[in-house]
Amino acid sequence: MRREFWRMVAVALMCSVGAAGCAGDVDDPSDVGTIEDSGGDAGGDVAPDAEDPDAEEPDAEDPDAEEPDAEDPDAEEPDAEEPDADDPPSGDGTSCEQAIDVTEGGVLDAQTTVGGPENQDADGEGCPSGRVSGPELIYVVNPAEATSYRVRVEPNEVSFDPMIYVRSGCETSVCLAGTVFSGPGDAETLDFEAPGGEPSYIIVDGELLSEGSFRLEVTIAE
To answer: Any signal peptide, and if so, which residues (predicted)?
Structure first.
């Protein structure tokens, strides 16, 4: 009993010298495990987060996204190239439907009746007296108002004897005007007035079955 008393006195003296040392020697069960933290901080670095199932994935290809514009069938195409003013008129002159348009006048070289059709004859009312004709080439004028024209045919061969006559269509035998005065190899000239709004067909034919190449000049009278 005394021994126990003196031990307690010794402990009390030691505590009076250093309270911290005394407190540390007391066994307190409540102090055990106080360092542990419920959040797992005692273990050091926190483990990386697991993959979040709600995280947004990169956008997949949107099926409703607008695709690049396909070629627009209604888009205006580039303007077609306009024909050169010096280009020859369209039509091959083999019929009234294919007549060569010279409404605005002009000069056409290297024209020829060789190999052309023989559907027209200058034997109707108002026509020149070329009863036996060769192949022909047909031109047309169709002015908006009455216009006076001069037509000149200059043959390139001395054997070609041209004649000129004008009709309102290929189905009629009546001529609005005509000439056949010159001989083989000589130029023929015809003046006539074309009515407005109606086509007039200029027919270059050959007298006595003649045919050949020529130069055509059509001018509008002032």
So the answer is: 1-19
Residues 6+ apart with CB under 8 A from 117: 94, 95, 135, 136
Q: Are strands 100-101 and 137-141 parallel, antiparallel or unpaired?
A: parallel
Q: Which helix (H) or strand (E) holds 14?
A: helix 2-17
Question: DSSP character for 163?
Answer: E
Phi-psi region of 70 (alpha: psi -120 to 50; beta: other; left: phi over 0): beta
What span, in angstroms and rounded, lies between the C-alpha atoms of 130 and 122? 6
Entry pTM: 0.61
- What Rg value do the Cα atoms of the chain yield, rounded? 58
Distance from the Cα of residue 168 to its chain's centroid = 40
Architecture of domain 100-220: Sandwich (2.60)
- pLDDT tens digit string along 38-97? 444 434 443 444 455 555 554 555 555 555 455 555 555 544 444 344 455 678 999 999
Contact between residue 120 and residue 143 where contact means Cβ atoms under 8 Å apart: no
Indicate the DSSP class of residue 70: P
Question: Residue 194: beta bridge partners?
Answer: 147
